[in-house]
Amino acid sequence: MNLALFAGDRKVADVPPVELERRRSFSLFAGGSLAVPIVVWNRD
Amino acid sequence: MSNLSVGNQHHGIRLAQQRRRQDSGQLRNRQWLAGIYGVIAGPVAYGPEPGRGSLPTDIVNDRGGGTTQRQWGLARSMWASRRASSCWISTCGPRNAGWVYRFGGALLAFQIEMLDILLNRKQASVLESRVPRAESPKQRLTSLQTTGDEQQWPTNTQLSCLRTRPRLWRSRGLPWRTPSCMREKPRQTRPSFTSSTRRLSAGSMRRSAISHSRPSCRTRRALTSSCARQFPHSGGVAQTILHVGGRSLLHRCIHRGRLAALEFHEPLTGLKATIAFFNLVPGTTLALKTADGTTAVFDAVARTLRHSAR
Prior knowledge:
The complex is a heterodimer. By secondary structure, chain A is mainly β. Chain A has one domain. Chain A has strands spanning about 5, 10-15, 25-30, 35-44. The mean pLDDT of chain A is about 85. Chain B is an alpha+beta fold. Chain B has one domain. A six-stranded mixed beta sheet of chain B has the order 5-6-8-9-10-7, with helices on one face. In chain B, strands 1-3-4-2 form a four-stranded antiparallel beta sheet, with helices on one face. The longest helix of chain B has 13 residues, at about 110-120. The chains are: A mainly beta, B alpha+beta. The interface of A and B includes residues 2, 5, 16, 28 and 29 of A. Strand 1 of chain A pairs antiparallel with strand 12 (about 285-290) of chain B, so a sheet runs across the interface.
């Protein structure tokens, strides 16, 4: 499943693929700016 | 005594201009746990630094210097009155070497609370990991975990209570215990900042508005700090996760100089993965959707950090 960030209808960034696992927490941090978004997954 | 292990990696702290910089090389002896909020290694104290006004947030390597003991003594004497305008953390190590961590301005409630936790437990190890640069060149992850049986995750019931009752969440914290280095001096009362912490935290506790279901993280407190500007992370998020006594805290530096702290907990069910989404982009509401835009995982997530725009 490919995810992406949207600001309204505008696609801002693609989200790096992550393999979800049961019993795990995944946090997606979107930082930077709209022009240069930074998208990072963190697996807890 | 602390049982610390620090990976020989940069831990995300840079010092002010006139100070010697603390870097990973100075952590190689595995004695120092460095973080945004403090250090646990050997005798630890923190308190206000008298006689000075607002300090720039910096971290001073006092190793080999002659001030550690003096400051250590001040820490002992000033233990009960730490509402001064500037605070610092001091550690003493072998041969009286130590670090002094200074914070500009008074410590925020969350910082005090974090330090309180750290000082009480004194059991933590640092496990650092990195996202491979090939995958995320701007990201550096750091996780801290307690050793052995120290890590105690709260149960779902507890989490439910904690979510709805911040005071209970705090009251579940560890009992006050004077650091070993302070025990020789009788403690009269719990330090006065405690009540301040509770008052401030109760007012400042904010729910994370990032998840429509049950978020795995909650914004505890958003902090701003000048030191964050000196962090070496040119982009991305630097974060540290600290698991102490059932409280799993994360503090994070975002590349534009914001610090944030969140509370983490385990997934609420073993059958699912929990996803949390943090929108840290100033002035923007973001949605996490499938790439084709048809299905929203999180819709219209506003920026979560109150102080993120500065």
